[in-house]
Amino acid sequence: QRGHDCVLLSYSDDYQSYMLRKGLETGTDPVQLARSNTDRIEASLAAINIRPDNWMRPYRNPYFADAVREVFEKAHKAGFIEFRESMEPYCPDCDRWGYEAFARGLCNYCGAESDASQCENCAQAPDAELMGDLRCKLCHQPSQWRSTNRAFLKLELFKPHLRDTLLNRK
Q1: N or C: which end of the chain has fewer CB within 10 A?
Q2: Which spans in the chain are helix H?
Q3: Is 88 within 8 Å of 150 (Cβ atoms)?
Q4: How far apart are CA 118 and CA 114, in angstroms?
């Protein structure tokens, strides 16, 4: 609006679990749903004269897959990722783990209805084990708890660097 040239890079989140859930709920292929949503987002931006310089579509993009693999492997080798057993919500009726889009309950921080990944009310990441009335988003049955081996990013290792970086910004 002020005549400045700006570089805008963006991407569609083709692998997001919400695409899979919505596809299952509507009987739509989740890949086609992601493509359609991305097309609509790009058209909306173009309608107000916003044209990203680059819009990445990660689905079946070998560069994206290679980059994710490289970052994961480097983080693992550096000791930033821990593999361990964890109790996680699971729906035996739907054969789905209750990650992100597939479980909903009451946020253990603010009490608002929330997905298991991030509360849209308080912006915290709920602890699924502490959430109230956690249920499968597809069939609405109460979540059961099962043990599984998962990878966890050790966020606490980044705290000093993030604190220094964010507090010393000029």
Answers
A1: C
A2: 17-26, 30-47, 62-77, 159-167
A3: yes
A4: 7
Q: How long, in residues, is the chain?
A: 170
Q: What are phi and psi of 57, to 5 degrees?
A: -115, 105
* pLDDT tens digits along 96-119: 999 889 999 999 999 999 998 889
Q: Tell how many helices (H) and how many strands (E) occur in the chain.
A: 4, 8
- Give pTM, 2 decimals: 0.77
What residues contact 75, with CB distance under 8 A and at least 6 apart? Answer: 81, 153
Residue 162, CB half-sphere, CA atoms under 13 Å: how many?
5
CB atoms within 10 A of CB 105: 22
Which DSSP string do the residues of 105-130 spell out, in sequence order?
Answer: EE-TTT--EEESS--TTT-----GGG
Q: Are 138 and 97 in contact (CB under 8 A)?
A: no
pLDDT (tens digit per residue) in 31-85 = 999 999 999 999 999 999 988 888 888 988 899 899 999 999 999 999 999 999 9
